[in-house]
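Researcher: Let's try something more involved. This one mixes different molecule types, so please make sure each is placed in the same coordinate frame as the others.
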Amino acid sequence: MTVSYNLDVSSVSFLNFFKVIFRWRGSVWKSVWSELLIWLICYYIVMISYRNIPESTRLIIKEYIDPIDDQLDKAVPLTFMLAFFVSIIVDRWKNTFANMGFIENTALSIASVVRGEETEVVLARRTIIRYLVLSQVLVFRDISLRARRRFPNLEAIMKSGFIQEHEIVELEKVSCPYNKYWLPINWACSILHKLFADGKISAAPLYNAAWQEIKTYRTNMANLCNFDWVPIPLAYPQVIFVAVRFYFFMCLFGRQHLDLNEKKSIDYYFPILTVAQFIVYMGWMKVAEALLNPLGEDDDDFECNFLIDKNIATGMSIVDETFNKFPEMKKDMFAE
Amino acid sequence: MTVSYNLDVSSVSFLNFFKVIFRWRGSVWKSVWSELLIWLICYYIVMISYRNIPESTRLIIKEYIDPIDDQLDKAVPLTFMLAFFVSIIVDRWKNTFANMGFIENTALSIASVVRGEETEVVLARRTIIRYLVLSQVLVFRDISLRARRRFPNLEAIMKSGFIQEHEIVELEKVSCPYNKYWLPINWACSILHKLFADGKISAAPLYNAAWQEIKTYRTNMANLCNFDWVPIPLAYPQVIFVAVRFYFFMCLFGRQHLDLNEKKSIDYYFPILTVAQFIVYMGWMKVAEALLNPLGEDDDDFECNFLIDKNIATGMSIVDETFNKFPEMKKDMFAE
Amino acid sequence: MTVSYNLDVSSVSFLNFFKVIFRWRGSVWKSVWSELLIWLICYYIVMISYRNIPESTRLIIKEYIDPIDDQLDKAVPLTFMLAFFVSIIVDRWKNTFANMGFIENTALSIASVVRGEETEVVLARRTIIRYLVLSQVLVFRDISLRARRRFPNLEAIMKSGFIQEHEIVELEKVSCPYNKYWLPINWACSILHKLFADGKISAAPLYNAAWQEIKTYRTNMANLCNFDWVPIPLAYPQVIFVAVRFYFFMCLFGRQHLDLNEKKSIDYYFPILTVAQFIVYMGWMKVAEALLNPLGEDDDDFECNFLIDKNIATGMSIVDETFNKFPEMKKDMFAE
Amino acid sequence: MTVSYNLDVSSVSFLNFFKVIFRWRGSVWKSVWSELLIWLICYYIVMISYRNIPESTRLIIKEYIDPIDDQLDKAVPLTFMLAFFVSIIVDRWKNTFANMGFIENTALSIASVVRGEETEVVLARRTIIRYLVLSQVLVFRDISLRARRRFPNLEAIMKSGFIQEHEIVELEKVSCPYNKYWLPINWACSILHKLFADGKISAAPLYNAAWQEIKTYRTNMANLCNFDWVPIPLAYPQVIFVAVRFYFFMCLFGRQHLDLNEKKSIDYYFPILTVAQFIVYMGWMKVAEALLNPLGEDDDDFECNFLIDKNIATGMSIVDETFNKFPEMKKDMFAE
Amino acid sequence: MTVSYNLDVSSVSFLNFFKVIFRWRGSVWKSVWSELLIWLICYYIVMISYRNIPESTRLIIKEYIDPIDDQLDKAVPLTFMLAFFVSIIVDRWKNTFANMGFIENTALSIASVVRGEETEVVLARRTIIRYLVLSQVLVFRDISLRARRRFPNLEAIMKSGFIQEHEIVELEKVSCPYNKYWLPINWACSILHKLFADGKISAAPLYNAAWQEIKTYRTNMANLCNFDWVPIPLAYPQVIFVAVRFYFFMCLFGRQHLDLNEKKSIDYYFPILTVAQFIVYMGWMKVAEALLNPLGEDDDDFECNFLIDKNIATGMSIVDETFNKFPEMKKDMFAE
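Model: All components are placed in one shared frame. Result:
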């Protein structure tokens, strides 16, 4: 579920700062703590091993690994890589969200042009909405594990009411060997044309307007599929993810105090700056990881199932329950 | 209220520079001074404590914390993080502003296609405008604390005249369990269709054009809700905010002069560069914090309540007061 | 006036390089020279003061201010701040320019749908164009000092012919307490509808098309107002401007040669690198300052007054002088 | 073929991390291993040569090449260049993908406006779809080596059924000396107009709507050609590619241990950090190289041939097999 | 002429790498070699001068200029400036290219709505196309030196057939004191309306659709003019260009070996790293210079004259030669 925190940042103040910092769900703390713990355990194992070997050996080891820490930052330019990678990912994340498919415009359009309160017209409007959401369900199943879990097969969709038995038959009858997300849309268009032919849509421009809204909705779904089909090239996140992990793996060895005769700094007991660095970089990378697949199962990922339910309820309400209704018009207060 | 300063920067000059620098409302000074004061107090407390402990202890402490300052910048890459984070936030802020919902286009469209000066047609036009602004009020209440304070409940909205009593009843009758921002829009669409059916709109393309404008307005409102529903993932601002504060917390200790026998620099008495750094980074971060929720209560945040009042006044003026009026056409000066 | 230099860069060559470099109007030299001079004077005052105090004092001072220069770059990350700020500003500048309001499309649209060469139809077309430009004049007055100076009040606009006396009366009669830029547009729309009702526009889709162009033009004007109403949050330019000036203020002291026994470098007589840095950073910041208010009075700012004159002349020519005219069609050379 | 890995990143966890890291197809490992191997071989050849020359000579060499490594990073700012170059390339890659030409919208549009199930109408719809895909085939042949290999000449296209013999004659008869990708589109438009003239499209707005969709599809194709015609200026990738290779070429010499009396670090035996750097920078550059021509033959490149097959199958299914079909409408479960 | 190299990068391989690197036309080598040569000559002149002055003088000089090289990179942050400047320029370059004006859509639109094969209708269609390209010729003349050279005056345009004698008379008769690029468009619109009035365009929506395409084409032309009218503010490229040249000018002196008793590095004979730096930074800047005026005369600039010829040939072919023609429709292979 998406984590909302806007009220906490409605104004800039110290209190709000703490409200934002100490949230847990979807927080950097939650995403970082387990790996930080593992890293710390490894760090102390290495530290204890080092301190228990003879000094002469230790000094030789020190010589061997000392240059690592000096050159690590040059070899692995984490800031650059993370900053640019996150920029690209955030862009993609925004686009994905903009294409999630919100039914209101389409439903309002259909309600505005398909007129009539006869049972079959109402049913036609309802069915169009249902087909649109059905298409969304089919798409979400393929790109979101959560939706897949909710709708493991067509039968589960049928039980939820988005598809009916004879529709499954029709769906499976179509021979096209590629995905069939477009089929429910095609059904919706066919119904729309029948309504037009039957005179329930009074003019061609209105038929066209409704069709355009359905097209926009379908394009959203197609874009989602395309984002799924063609992700950021694998090598890019690989480079980033490996670089961050390699960096902190090397820190396990390079940030140790090997010459026990040296002056002791605070890092002698607890690597406070490396831990800070771990939280910052790892947290930053976790942001990237979480955004990489915005339809996944992280705290911050989009709620596909919620959207499906909202779409069907809102859509039905618009084309049926509240169709053609408006309160009696009375004189308003703003007239002088 | 938004802080306007464009006249001050109409040309590049020294004087204008000072005009911009010494503004208070919405300024970096206003947002930074309190935390800077707290930080300075802490800094001097730490300084005095240090200087009052025995030298030997102090030198040991020095050894312990000396490496902190050296590595702090590497561990916490503030410039990178702030620069990229602010870029992303500014982008979002611009989008939010572009979706605030300005009624002029919709009102002009309705005035252009819904013709007639009979009382009921005028009332219909007025009611459509009122419903559009009502939808905006409902949305703003949920995403802006200021609007919420002005309209704590439906009754307050009723008293302001945006909704009427029997409309509240209708609103609450609708069973849809999700938000109902779309309902007033739906009412407006229904009225629009009635006007079309009654022949007040002379052709389908014009009905369609008005509908498109209402849709655009509604899409703006829906986008605002979506920006509120799906913010930048929490972990991102958390990482940034914690990093900045951690950095300056560490500076409290790492930027002290512990070896009193060392040469004294200007920092011995007043940490001028760290204060400059504090203003710059903290100010930069405050920009990010303020932009993060542009509908909040900072000096620079968008004025929801002003916009609501402007929309209702302008909209009503367009569809009623100035409807179908234009000055007598006379020969202009530009004709040869 | 905007400074054009495209012909100078039509190809990459040494000569073109010098042509670009040694321009004065709108150049970095022009914007930087005065502050550079002031800075240099201050620098030499500080230098002379230093060299005239006893050496012992000077060395103590040296100790005090030496660390400044070392840490200044860390404390004030000018490159980052300027680079990102300029990016954001350039984006806004582009958007402003794209919304300046060019009348050609609207005028061509009106000429294409409002047919007829009778005096009153021609007058109607002319009046619509005049109202559109009038709206632009009203907007420009509020956001550009140059336009304000040309049109200090409504009377000045009247003398230029953009508004007529009885129109001022109408304008002032409208009670809306907010800006009334939309009113001339509303008049234009009303005239357009009258033409449609009188059969001068032959079909609803054409009426709609003309209306859409007027809307696009009005949206441009509204966007300009919005850019003016909601600038980049004040704190952002403040942080940048203060940081740059603080940086060079500190350089006055930190870049001096205090230990006269040290080896003399070229900086002993003239701080060549600091001057280079001053030109680069200051010039960069001046770009940002100049772009911050693109409707201001800098050499590079958009020419509001020129655009107004061009719009009225071109618009009138399209809807009147060249209306419905085209040369006799003759066989062209491209037919085989 | 595009490499999909979204399911592996559906949530942020350690396991998923490894799934992403250890993929081979399209991975950074696959793209980097061969050059890394060559580099390592060269590195060890240089190392062995060095160690087998007399110490005195070696120390002179050391003097000569020591400054290289120190200044290499300043001379060749790889991080900056790669980060910005990849940003620009990713942007272009996204645009290319968005213009690949997906037929669904066009096909649905044609199915929605061209009504009739008579053989010749069905054939007309099928032919329009075929011509659209034919245009795509012609374009893809010119910009994608894979498509070119599948369709080496018009005859191969004919055998695949996208073009027919008499159509090749027509195609070759047209005298236009430039590319003729637009010709099949022109045929499709002509057929569309014939359908309109024959009354198979019931109204001008619908004819227009279908035409707009065909235009959108054609514009996609034209954009692809334009991306191919005007690539990123050659000098930009050249600078980047040369810089990266020059950097690692210099590392062959600059990262050697020449003074064998110096303390031995881990780099004495294996240049672990340089190898890490090689993987990171080279991998990053490989991302850029792969994205530079997204229609090429890398693992991650778009699958032109797959898209052609999908388009023809889906398009035909929409305008013929599933045309005007929808399941019987039955009461749904969402009605209360 | 634009330099195409896409086939060379169709897959990532070593061979392709070399193909890209060793191209000459439009390459970084071609743009950098002459200035590099000049720089090297200067460098060696300075070097020889240095080595021929007495050692004592030389060491004093050394003292004077030594600090330059250390601080040069701080004073002139080339990487930042170039990276961000190139980003902004690339964005503008893309926009320019997108607005070059491709006639296909407009021509297809006119062919789709203006029906009839009578001589005068065909001539009307041809004339509209010619006027559109004429407008492009007029615009290109003003913004591209190459187009200006091909069309030095109206007569040259007339000889090429884009304008006819009596049209020049009409063009010069119009009194508008500003540019008249819109006039041929206005003629085209007037012809279009005449066709509509004569019943050659069957419905208002189709007239409107064709008009919209002409508008889109004209907007492209207007955008090109605007890009030319309002370039990136002069101070920005000035700062960049001066900074790069100043940097390498200082390197002439700062990168010399003045203390001949120092250990000799490879830079003693040939400044290999400075040369590498020169190629990288200068090449990067040359990319910026070349993109700054994409309609100029560099190898990589857009081919205005080619586009004009292609537009007239393709446009004429669409509206005349291939008008209303399509091959006989036969059953395709994809039907089962």
